[in-house]
## 1
Amino acid sequence: AQSVSQHNHHVILSEAASLELGCNYSYGGTVNLFWYVQYPGQHLQLLLKYFSGDPLVKGIKGFEAEFIKSKFSFNLRKPSVQWSDTAEYFCAVGYQKVTFGTGTKLQVIP
Amino acid sequence: KAGVTQTPRYLIKTRGQQVTLSCSPISGHRSVSWYQQTPGQGLQFLFEYFSETQRNKGNFPGRFSGRQFSNSRSEMNVSTLELGDSALYLCASSYEVTDTQYFGPGTRLTVL
């Protein structure tokens, strides 16, 4: 069975700090990987996705993620966070059935 | 292009009742997936429909069911509601389930 693990449940950063959110997955077949974000009071939105090709994926709002197959990881990064990045971030994996991680709440302090 | 719409946005029911939630996908999308989101369990996959057929199902009891119509609109039904069914129910649509899913705003169900 596929599973996703997000180790950081709650992260607090100051503006301009660098961000890295961990995501590890367990999946036996063709893997599609996603990061979604949920801003307060808003829908889940796709930040970025990996289906195949270059393992370094760039998404919206300056986010990027690196797929490391040998480590079963797909960590999310941003060099310099802003207050507006305060949100909950979800890693997800799957092909026909998508499994989400439990989410990481990011709080950015001005 | 209009996004995924879900109705109603909020619903309050009592234990034992049943409820039907509706989802209209983005025009052209044929795959509709449903998820339950709770603070304790996070986002959990319920089922996925494509061309009126349920193709994938999560680990939920038979009280949770769904269907999809020929215009790709989908409904999910929960019978004999329990307190633990209180959650945000999210619908997501895509051209194919293997493509990027676009989420609706959700229906907030409260069971009293």
## 2
Amino acid sequence: EDQVTQSPEALRLQEGESSSLNCSYTVSGLRGLFWYRQDPGKGPEFLFTLYSAGEEKEKERLKATLTKKESFLHITAPKPEDSATYLCAVQARGFQKLVFGTGTRLLVSP
Amino acid sequence: DARVTQTPRHKVTEMGQEVTMRCQPILGHNTVFWYRQTMMQGLELLAYFRNRAPLDDSGMPKDRFSAEMPDATLATLKIQPSEPRDSAVYFCASGFPSMFSNGGYEQYFGPGTRLTVT
């Protein structure tokens, strides 16, 4: 069974304090690993898709990396507006559905 | 700015009543997904359609939930009869095959319908 585990569950950072979120996965053939951001009361917002080990993608202060067992979302010099829940999901070969982790709640204090 | 839209945004109903949630996918997307999100379970896939045909509804309680896509611009999720344990946020997402890989689907979510069953 495909599984996604995210850690930590919650993370509190000071503005400018860089850190990383972890997403460990087991999947029967990875088609893609997805990162989403979710703000309270809103739907998940698509951030990145990673397809193969070694791949990296960046967007503003966020950088996502992928290995054969896990993905990291690195947040460099975060700002309070980066506060949100970050969700990781995997898509297995032959399927369109996503299996989500439970997310990491990030709070960045000024 | 293309977006997935969902109605209603909030619904409060009594146990036993029928609930219908609607979704308009992004024009051109050929796959529509229904998810449910709760604090305990996180995001769970209920059902999805491709080109309006149901592909997988194994995540749905079949006796009370039904999902349809009467046309390319409308997807519906019905609960009849509703129960308090159905209280959750229901998200619709639409997607298309990514150009950049082996068919991976990027999915874009709507704002959700927050359902409360009393």
